[in-house]
Automatic annotation (TrEMBL):
<dbReference type="InterPro" id="IPR024775">
    <property type="entry name" value="DinB-like"/>
</dbReference>
<protein>
    <submittedName>
        <fullName>DinB family protein</fullName>
    </submittedName>
</protein>
<feature type="domain" description="DinB-like">
    <location>
        <begin position="23"/>
        <end position="174"/>
    </location>
</feature>
<dbReference type="InterPro" id="IPR034660">
    <property type="entry name" value="DinB/YfiT-like"/>
</dbReference>
<dbReference type="Pfam" id="PF12867">
    <property type="entry name" value="DinB_2"/>
</dbReference>
Length: 187
């Protein structure tokens, strides 16, 4: 797929995620936002906090990588490394297999309030800007250290796709939590 088309798809997905959080979660009360279907599952706010923890790392790492590689060396398509393909396959929303997250990224049993929503939306604005800035960047440059093992690096393009795809996965999870709560209330 052409890089400009890929960036546009990621930009649109980012907008959709922002709209979903604003429309589906922002108006809920704290009890609904903290509802957990089971002790080991995450609440809506825990899903958002998990994404916030990733954004706190990846947004600055991407900003640095994009700034250092915006030399106009623009390529027509994104090439994926083995690590990039594996990472994307793991977080795709269609992949129903559950994966354990690294301990410091697991928000289970966190005390969370509306600030988690505000922070998520702030990170989405930053990501939107990064996606725009990426248009003049060599997206095939291996320049983004993997959060849990910084010796490994992902390409800029695959990292942008990983961040958006990972967010889609957990926003869908949060929507399922909302639906489960509605079903429990109706029963």
């Amino acid at each position: 797929m052409n890089i400009m088309n890929k960036l546009e798809l990621l930009t649109q997905a980012n907008r959709t995620l922002t709209e979903t959080v604003t429309n589906e979660f922002a108006k809920l009360d704290l009890d609904a936002l903290n509802y957990k279907p089971s002790a080991e599952s995450w609440s809506i706010l825990e899903c958002l906090e998990h994404l916030n923890r990733y954004s706190r790392y990846y947004n600055p790492a991407l900003a640095k990588a994009i700034a250092q590689n915006s030399n106009g060396n623009f390529l027509e398509s994104i090439n994926y490394s083995w690590l990039g393909k594996k990472s994307l396959d793991m977080v795709r929303p269609q992949n129903a297999k559950k994966h354990k997250t690294v301990k410091h990224m697991n928000p289970n049993n966190s005390k969370l309030g509306r600030g988690a929503i505000d922070e998520f939306l702030m990170h989405q604005e930053k990501l939107q800007q990064l996606l725009q800035n990426a248009k003049g960047t060599n997206l095939n440059k291996k320049a983004v250290p993997v959060e849990f093992f910084k010796l490994l690096k992902l390409r800029i393009g695959e990292t942008l796709e990983f961040v958006v795809t990972h967010q889609e996965r957990h926003i869908q999870q949060a929507l399922r939590v909302k639906q489960q709560q509605a079903q429990q209330m109706a029963a």
